[in-house]
Design a protein that fits this description.
Elements lengths: L2 H12 L12 E10 L2 E3 L6 E2 L6 E7 L7 H10 L5 E4 L1 H6 L1 H9 L3 E4 L12 H20 L10 E2 L8 H9 L3 E3 L3 E2 L8 H15 L2 E6 L3 H16 L3 E11 L3 E2 L7 H8 L7
Parallel strand pairs: 1-11, 2-8, 4-5, 4-10, 4-11, 5-6, 7-8, 9-10
Antiparallel strand pairs: 3-12
Helix pairs in contact: 2-8, 4-5, 7-8
The chain binds zinc ion.
């Protein structure tokens, strides 16, 4: 074998370990999220979140996979040896199955965000359930090559955070955890990558970390992500990678005086909350 080929094989075998020196952001810990009996986390919507320590950050990316953009998100995460959770739209996964599968192959958690991203409150319960189930199946067929009765990773995020009591209890009965978010920059709104970066860092400084909502389909997020990850490293934030785990969901309650920001947005806007 020629030396260059040998080097490539060795690099492939050892994975990111060669590149992941102490200067990389890296994953600080993996949190096994219990899904028995379901539950819901994320302070923008629910009065509780994951039991993260101050300075811990969970990265989540919604609405992909999207060719031309998700690859760049994966490259930015790989360059910092970071793992994230991708809430995929079934229709997008079905349209780009190799890209969807690559997200899992690179060690990220693949979760679900419905089949076609409707506002579930505008659908009947049966239609909403069908859309959610189609999303589970389309993502799993793209990522794993087949679909079971239940999603592989029981993590779901409602489009626009528009849940309902009936759908929440239906998901709970299937041991599926609902994810909101603790903070976002609002990357679906018009802003430059620099503005998004500044807004995210300011909000993280206030919240001391949490579950961050980003969109891998948004060019401004793709553009600022490498600088965002560098800034997290420089400011001493630590990345937590979520995977499904056994037992019930463990949570931390919201601070006193909590209200649901997404509920306020959903009631005041026909467009719904971003996400
Ligand atoms: Zn979304």
């Amino acid at each position: 074998m020629r030396p260059i080929a040998l080097a490539l094989v060795l690099a492939a075998l050892s994975g990111p370990a060669l590149a992941c020196g102490p200067d990389a952001l890296g994953v600080s810990r993996t949190l096994r999220v219990g899904t028995l009996g379901g539950g819901a986390v994320g302070l923008k919507t629910y009065p509780r979140t994951l039991p993260l320590a101050p300075g811990e950050v969970v990265l989540t990316f919604d609405d992909g996979p999207m060719p031309g953009k998700t690859e760049r998100v994966l490259a930015a995460l790989d360059a910092e040896c970071v793992k994230a959770t991708f809430f995929m739209i079934g229709r997008n996964a079905a349209a780009a199955p190799r890209l969807a599968a690559r997200v899992l192959q690179e060690g990220h958690t693949v979760a679900y965000h419905s089949m076609t991203h409707p506002n579930m409150r505008h659908l009947g319960v049966a239609a909403a359930q069908a859309n959610i189930d189609k999303g589970f199946q389309a993502v799993d067929e793209a990522v794993y090559g087949d679909a079971w009765n239940e999603p592989r990773a029981p993590f779901f995020r409602f489009p626009g955070f528009a849940d309902s009591p009936a759908l929440d209890s239906w998901l709970a009965s299937r041991d599926i955890v609902v994810f909101g978010a603790d903070l976002w920059a609002g990357d679906w709104e018009p802003m430059t990558p620099d503005q998004e970066l500044a807004r995210l860092l300011a909000r993280l400084d206030r919240s001391k970390g949490g579950i961050v909502l980003l969109h891998d389909i948004q060019p401004r997020t793709v553009a600022m992500l490498p600088r965002f990850l560098r800034a997290l490293k420089e400011k001493g934030y630590r990345i937590v990678h979520l995977v499904p785990g056994p037992g019930p969901l463990e949570t931390r309650p919201a601070p006193a005086g909590w209200t649901s920001e997404t509920e306020r947005i959903l009631r005041s806007s026909a467009k719904g909350a971003g996400g």
